[in-house]
Design a protein that fits this description.
This protein has helices at 2-18, 20-37, 41-46, 52-67, 72-77, 86-94, 98-124, 134-139, 153-167, 180-192, 197-210, 218-234, 237-244, 252-270, 280-284, 304-337, 343-362, 372-381, 384-401. It is mainly α. Helix 17 (343-362) runs antiparallel to helix 19 (384-401).
């Protein structure tokens, strides 16, 4: 059973970089295996249940808003993303110690680098005219921005952002691994070529959170945070223009987001407590779209907290925020309990904190919580502190017995 679980976990990680069908299929397999193991009372007592209270509260708030929406069937169907939260629990179950958590991160780094390489080839070889048929048509569809094997560049950016931050401690002093540096750099270039500004900002925010957690790597982090904007500014013209446009309030994408946020706020004011139910923005947005907005219909308002507020109301947003507050409380508390000699455990926890920060910050300009590929990576990476905690608990138990 251990071999089966490890094989399914490897397939899950490969799928995160290359195929949502493989990732979801492996997740189903891991979940069924996890549920089968729960028959044993001894297994149940030894299992970690990370963040179960806020996760359960969010699921309940989501279903309550669906029932109250007036479109129960459609809203419940739109709540299917709740099932992906299983990635947190099956990953926490599969990673029995920090060594296995470290192996998991190595797999994730390689899968992300493979996706980044595919995206770079796609971008560099993008033909002037889309091929007529076959695999070439699929691979080079919308290839003006790297998207690899995903339907859109924002998904690739979201996956690479989380993977880069989770593995960032491996390329810093104190945890440096020679093989990780070129893999990390390739992945970072792939992220740059997605031209996704929200993910860039998320990467910077996540990297900044590592500064107080990694004293030996602080200078390298600060140097990188200063140099990266300079590289963007003096880089290729299109990349430089994309970076500069982040600071232009009249840029078309920024203006359209502001219109969406204003419309979303108006929607929330009509149903503040429970919102319009999952899928409500897609159903109702056209009635609230501003006259000056170019986009009259949309399924999301390009801001995760606002989307949660509009569709699940204050109750749903409070439960959603509680998940992240509880995560940071647990992860930071664990990091403080780990002494400097436990470098592997500290790297797992610090990388997880950085990755979650990058995910949340990127979600201020995208609804990445509903992007299946991205949120599965986020849930999985959130399990890493529990793997580190198992190692810490095991060492304490061993100290007591000796």
């Amino acid at each position: 059973m251990i071999a089966l679980r490890r094989g399914l976990l490897a397939a899950f990680v490969v799928g995160l970089g290359f195929s949502i069908t493989l990732a979801e299929g492996a997740l189903i397999g891991l979940t069924l295996l996890w549920l089968w193991r729960l028959r044993d009372p001894g297994v149940r007592r030894g299992l970690a249940w990370p963040l179960w209270q806020p996760v359960l509260a969010f699921a309940a708030a989501t279903l309550l808003s669906a029932v109250a929406s007036g479109h129960v069937g459609a809203s419940v169907a739109a709540s299917k993303g709740l099932l992906l939260m299983a990635a947190l629990y099956v990953t926490a179950d599969a990673l029995e110690d920090a060594r296995e958590g470290d192996r998991f991160l190595s797999w994730l780094a390689l899968a992300a680098a493979g996706a980044a390489l595919a995206g770079l080839v796609q971008f560099a070889a993008c033909p002037p005219q889309q091929p007529a048929d076959g695999l070439a048509r699929w691979f080079f569809h919308r290839c003006d921005r790297a998207r690899a094997f995903f339907s859109i560049y924002m998904t690739l950016a979201g996956v690479l952002n989380i993977a880069l931050l989770a593995t960032l401690p491996r390329v810093l002093p104190g945890g440096f691994r020679a093989w990780s540096a070129p893999v990390w750099l390739l992945t970072a270039i792939g992220l740059a070529m997605t031209y996704t500004r929200g993910a860039w900002i998320g990467l910077g925010a996540g990297a900044a959170t590592l500064s107080p957690m990694n004293r030996r790597g602080r200078l390298a982090l600060l140097t990188g945070l200063v140099l990266l904007p300079v590289i963007f500014l003096v880089g290729p013209r299109d990349l430089s223009h994309r970076f500069r446009s982040m600071f232009d309030p009249d840029e078309a994408g920024i203006k359209e987001r502001v219109y969406m946020w204003r419309s979303g706020t108006a929607m929330w004011r009509e149903r503040p407590l429970l919102g319009w139910g999952p899928g409500g923005v897609k159903r109702e947005y056209s009635r609230y779209a501003l006259l000056e907005a170019l986009k009259r219909r949309t399924s999301h308002v390009h801001n995760t907290p606002l989307q949660i507020l509009v569709e699940r109301g204050v109750l749903g947003l409070a439960a959603w925020l509680a998940i992240w507050i509880a995560f940071y409380w647990r992860a930071i508390g664990l990091l403080r309990a780990l002494d400097a000699s436990r470098m592997r455990e500290r790297a797992l926890v610090a990388g997880s904190i950085a990755a979650v920060t990058g995910f949340l910050v990127a979600g201020l300009s995208e609804y990445n919580f509903d992007d299946s590929e991205v949120v599965m990576v986020a849930w999985a990476v959130m399990a890493l502190p529990w793997a580190a905690d198992r190692s810490l608990s095991a060492s304490r138990g061993s100290d007591v017995t000796t």
